[in-house]
Design brief:
The chain has about 190 residues and is of the alpha/beta class. The chain contains five helices and eight strands. The longest helix has 12 residues.
Length: about 190
């Protein structure tokens, strides 16, 4: 079992925590951004965090780990390695989440859905709906960081290695914008 202290050490060592003015995938603004892709630059960090997440699902007989591109591609791979199953990723096609590249979910496949950071859960729910429409049985959702501070809610069990209550704002109510900080930076992958 990994401790919150150890997760925080990893996030700091990996340079994950960024400060500034950011536009999140959800459309909200924040003064803090978690660049979790930096975790996956170092297999030591990725392995340790994904092993901790895999512990919650080892008894679940997962067939496929699925994550939305780009943030969860490497995470899905590393978790599938720990669980001994396949891994796929979804990506946008004509503005909607799609399963491409010959990936196929069969009715009844037991799926673990993963995302590196969850703020509102929008990308996860898009992927969730896609998997359900293909007949997949979503056993759970896992993330490295629950940025919602525990407020994210899903119709299946959800686990993360750390919960962080990082403040975010509607663009019209952003105090960083009000201070004249300029346009927010979009370090994430979705345009």
């Amino acid at each position: 079992m990994i401790t919150e202290k150890r997760v925080t050490e990893i996030l700091k060592e990996a340079g994950v925590l960024l400060e500034g003015h950011f536009l999140l995938t959800s459309g909200r603004h924040s003064g803090t951004y978690l660049q979790c892709a930096k975790i996956f630059q170092n297999s030591k960090y990725a392995g340790e965090l994904c092993a901790a997440l895999a512990e919650s699902f080892t008894a679940e007989r997962i067939d496929v780990v699925v994550g939305p591109a780009m943030g969860a591609v490497l995470m899905a791979y590393e978790l599938s390695r720990k669980l001994g199953c396949k891994n796929y990723f979804t990506e946008r096609e004509n503005g909607r989440m799609a399963l491409r590249r010959g990936f196929e979910i069969k009715p009844g496949d037991r799926i673990l859905l993963v995302e590196d950071v969850i703020t509102t859960g929008g990308s996860v729910m898009e992927t969730f709906e896609l998997i359900k429409s293909l007949g997949g049985d979503i056993i759970g959702i896992a993330s490295i960081v629950d940025r919602s501070g525990g407020k994210a809610s899903f119709p299946v069990p959800f686990t993360s290695v750390i919960k962080m209550d990082v403040e975010s704002f509607d663009p019209g109510d952003c105090p960083i914008c009000a201070r004249g900080a300029g346009a927010p930076v979009k370090p994430g992958s979705r345009k």
